[in-house]
Amino acid sequence: CKERMDCRRIKDRMNVEDDRLSMLPDDLIYRMLSLIDIKHATRTCALSSRWSLTGSSIRFPDTYSIILESTWDLPALTTLQLRCVAFYDDNGTGIFSKCVNLKNLTLNNFTILGSCDFTICHPRLSNLTLKNGYWALDAFNLVAPQLNNLTIRSCYGKHLIATPNLTYLLFSGSCLLQFSTDLCYLEKVDLRIDTSFVWSGSRIACLLQQIHNVKFLTLNLELVKPLSAYMERISLQPSPFSNIKSLKIFPLYVPSDDEAHEKVTMSTKVLNYLLDGSPSATLTMISYEELKEKQQKARAYANAVVAQNRMSNLQELLEKEKANIETHMNRRKTSVEADVLAHDQGKTQVENVQLHFERKMAQMKSCWEDVGVQINEGRSTTDYILSQLRDIEVLLQKDLPASKTDNLLACFSNLCAEVDNVVEKILHRMKIPQIHLSACFNELAATSRSSS
């Protein structure tokens, strides 16, 4: 008997159709979802139509620690991307030793621990990308005889590289970069070096000598300042470049008005040093003004993309909210019709006054609970919708591409009208339980008068 009652309670819980998740405050929802793993958070968001969109904006601090006790024996693997990994001295690179056909490797957000040199040595690797790496070692060694493309961004530590077949190099950062082999096949080099730390004029000149076979060279303007100070020592030396076809020089950043004194002016001596060996090379100089204009255009385009995405997300949320309201209204209508039918049956059967009174009191209690739920849910939903609308409005007040401004403002105007319509429906839904509660009061009062 007890087991039957327990089963009945479980079935009752499973048959509840109310969206309980949406009844909770925003802060509590975000806190709860951020404390569980991504898989379960996604499943939870799917249970609530209101949170199906907002769940994607929650940041999950999931960290999964995997310690490899043996090398990866993956002979068919050709492409590998690793993020948030830590290597320990030379032991860390052993994971690649049995990936004999590995051609493309990307390491992002990685750390090298220990005090010895760290080496990546692979005979068939052709494309390597290193991003956001840190190590306090003597050197990071790369030995890859078949490597064609090398990209290094924001890695902190000394690099010693042996890549005789390298054709493309992109280096962005402030750490030292040295090649131990001649780069006979080098075609394109893009250097974006922060010279405020370890890069002196002599080190820059040494690097330029190592990449002397390059045909297409891009340099940041900030390299000119330390190189200019070193020109007296190398003024009698010939230009290191004899095959260069194109030289592009651009500033890494635009100083503010207070930092105007930090602007670098192109030195004629440095320019002659770079181009004297290739008189037919094409020179492209990007000014601070051109870079500033380019950055402004990029920001304006990014603002437009973000605004359009947010408007699309909010429109989708409004459509789901309208569907929820309609579903709720239909349930309420069905419930009211059932109450009217029960009331009419009570009249024909000369319902007992006490039973009628108890039934009405139960209805009133349910209405009171529904009033609180509707008010809390309506306020929470409305606050969220309006906050999203305000965020979009702030975005539209920033720089936008002229070609997209009119269309974005028109979409925003239509969205405001849609928000006004949905909020009005939400407010109306909040009033319905109050109206039903008032009707119960009146009917109960009428019953009391008729029985006295």
From TrEMBL:
<keyword id="KW-0175">Coiled coil</keyword>
<dbReference type="InterPro" id="IPR036047">
    <property type="entry name" value="F-box-like_dom_sf"/>
</dbReference>
<dbReference type="InterPro" id="IPR053197">
    <property type="entry name" value="F-box_SCFL_complex_component"/>
</dbReference>
<feature type="coiled-coil region">
    <location>
        <begin position="304"/>
        <end position="331"/>
    </location>
</feature>
<protein>
    <recommendedName>
        <fullName>F-box/LRR-repeat protein</fullName>
    </recommendedName>
</protein>
